[in-house]
Amino acid sequence: MQASNQQNTAQDDQVSWWFKLLARGLGTIGGLDMCEPLGVPEILAGFMVVVLEAPCCCPFLDFIDKIGKFSENRPYWQKGALYVGSGIVPILLCFSTTTVLGCALVFGTGVLYGMMALGKK
Questions:
Q1: Are residues 71 and 109 in the same domain?
Q2: Quick one: 24 and 69 in the same domain?
Q3: Do 80 and 38 fall within a single domain?
Q4: How remote is the C-alpha of 79 from its chain's centroid?
Q5: Do 42 and 88 form a contact (C-beta atoms < 8 A)?
Q6: Model pLDDT, residue 77
Q7: By C-alpha distance, which of 107, 111, 98 is closest to 45?
Q8: Residues 83 and 106 sit within 8 Å (Cβ to Cβ)
Q9: Among residues 54, 42, 53, 47, which one has the least CA distance to residue 87?
Q10: Do both 54 and 104 map to the same domain?
Q11: C-beta separation of 113 from 75 below 8 A
Q12: Which domain holds residue 9?
């Protein structure tokens, strides 16, 4: 055990203090990915779309039917604004490929509802 500690100490002596500090700093910053906690709005937006568009996917929640019926009575422009807004917020908070791909369908649904609100031209 002592021989292994002495070998590690000998290896550590060959590395400068600033290089050790740099490695620890980069590891710490890399471990604190800011996009992970910001994924919560993306998950909530997806759940909201499922609840509003397909309440049959959540039969285990009693209040979902009331929300689905309320959603059916809303004008298209309100649904479009809600979906576009909830699809854009996670992208503004953390712009990355996974966030854009995850929110693209919610945003696209909002765009389609906006087009339905405009009607035939």
A1: yes
A2: no
A3: yes
A4: 20
A5: no
A6: 92
A7: 107
A8: yes
A9: 42
A10: yes
A11: no
A12: 1-32
111 shares a domain with 79:
yes
Are the CB atoms for 87 and 110 separated by under 8 Å? Answer: yes
Give the pLDDT of residue 30: 66
Q: Number of C-alpha atoms within 13 angstroms, CB side, residue 26?
A: 6
CA distance 31 to 34: 9
Tokens 């620890």 belong to which residue?
A: 24
Shared domain for 42 and 93, answered yes or no, is: yes
- Series of mean pLDDT values for 10-residue runs along the chain (121 residues): 56 73 75 70 85 84 85 90 88 83 87 88 68
Please check whether residues 2 and 57 belong to one and the same domain.
no
Residue with tokens 């966030």: 99
Give, as one character, the DSSP assignment of residue 55.
G
Question: Is the distance from CB of 19 to CB of 80 less than 8 angstroms?
Answer: no
For the chain, the domain total comes to 2
pLDDT of the residue at 72: 87
Q: Supply 101's token pair.
A: 């791909």
Q: Give the C-alpha separation, 63 to 51, whole Å.
A: 10
CA–CA dist 79, 112 (Å, integer) = 10
